[in-house]
User: Fold this.
Amino acid sequence: MKKPQSSPIFDDSDFPISIVRKSIFQGTGADLTEAGKKPLIAIANSLTEINPGHMHLGPIAQRVKDGVNMAGGLPFEFNIPAPCDGMTEGHPGMRFVLAQRDLIADIIETHIRSMRYDGIVFIASCDKIIPGMIMAAARLDLPAIFVTGGPNAWDIRFKASMRGGVDHKCYTDLLDKLATATAATCGSCEVMGTANTMQSLTEALGISLAGSATVPAFHSAKLLYARHAGQRIVGLIEEGLSIKKILTQQSLENALMVSLAIGGSTNVALHLPAIAYELSLELPLSRFNDYSRIIPTLCGISPNGPHGMIDLFVAGGIPAVMKRLGDHLHRDPLTVSGMRIGDIVDQAEVKNPDVIRDKEHAFHPEGGMAALFGNLAPEGAVVKQSAVAENMRVFTGPARVFDAESDVLKAIRQKTLREGEVIVIRYEGPRGGPGMPETLAVTMGLDLAGFTNLALITDGRFSGATAGPCIGHVSPEAACGGPIAIIQNGDVIKIDITARTLDVDLTPEEIQRRLADWKPVIKPVPPGYMRRYVNAVSSAALGAVLK
Assistant:
């Protein structure tokens, strides 16, 4: 069998140093003769015991190993960090989550390059782990395949009071609302947040087996797909099908179209450009608008509608979504199955047309996300437009400016905010935050406080589960001297999601005058990795990659 990377470990041409390698390897209990013939497969597992999204990945990894062994490879597992956005909300830990995406990519890349694996199986469920893994795969350009951990089930599914959906807007009782956000099983949170968006996009990119991404974490099919992936990675090595033959400009655009159709997380505007960067390709925010104009939101997965990820799985999953996209989709890209995307689409079936709608009956006539540009966001900003009420898509109001998320939370508690205002939270970008934290605590606070006529903009980011006129990723960020840095209380801000614009009612001369007098707010950065991160991270508009 082929061993394109690992052969030097067992090569005696540099004797006697080869004795060192083989004698150490023998300590694993592996048979040296066997190992010298079979490909070495890395199992990059994000198993962790501290969050439900990754606590169940041990048995999945074992099934992957079973598949590798069946196909004639030798599997070796290693683990990487698996941060949970939800568990870092409301405290300083959130500032380290996005930064871990690039750290995860670095850990995987350096480990694989040093240990000379022939192929990789990636196992993960949640937000920053999957894109970090894809970034590493792009750098390494080895045969690789993804196994997603799958969504969980919300607790509301196990209550007699469940009516009509899993979204909190379906209920009035507080306990029922709480049950729509309580994890009852292992797996990633059942909403169409970043975790399930990125799991879904592994299929659209062609790097996981068709139909596998939306299988619930607790479903037996998840284990079966894991074993098949373990078998398939050996086949990919034999065929010489490396990841860059699958990840192309067209496959990136397919992923973007699927994200728009399923109402995916705005964090995709960070992750897809970052993946493109690792592939030496480009996916600018303007491209998001090109597709959002023509791709409707076909799925109403919470927070965009009443359904949950389990409903999407039962309705046919991502292959069925791609079938609905029809001629918009690029059919030629290869997938890890060896089939082309078009072949998978031809075999797909939409099993519930209410969950995966056709274009004529779409949940929203445009894609789930839009990029906004204007004098307040020259490089762009993003909004999950599928979760914005129609009467809030055009909004004008006076700015209420805060230099930290904590200050807004204080204002909510003190009840000093007013309907009609545009809340501006700045110095929360990749450099200024530091780490571009989510502001889910603010959006939840505003919702619980009963605000219905108020907008929010920030150079930070939002949870993929955020709803309403919440505009994030405003670039350039305040810490880099973006126009958001010089907004003052009372400045009139104009939001027009339909026109894709975000402006402040100031002349260019006034903006430049204020910038000339501007001095940045500098927040403390703890010693260690974050100090290196803030010095190297790029604009959110470019994916917040390290350069």
Observations:
- The chain is about 35% helix and 10% strand.
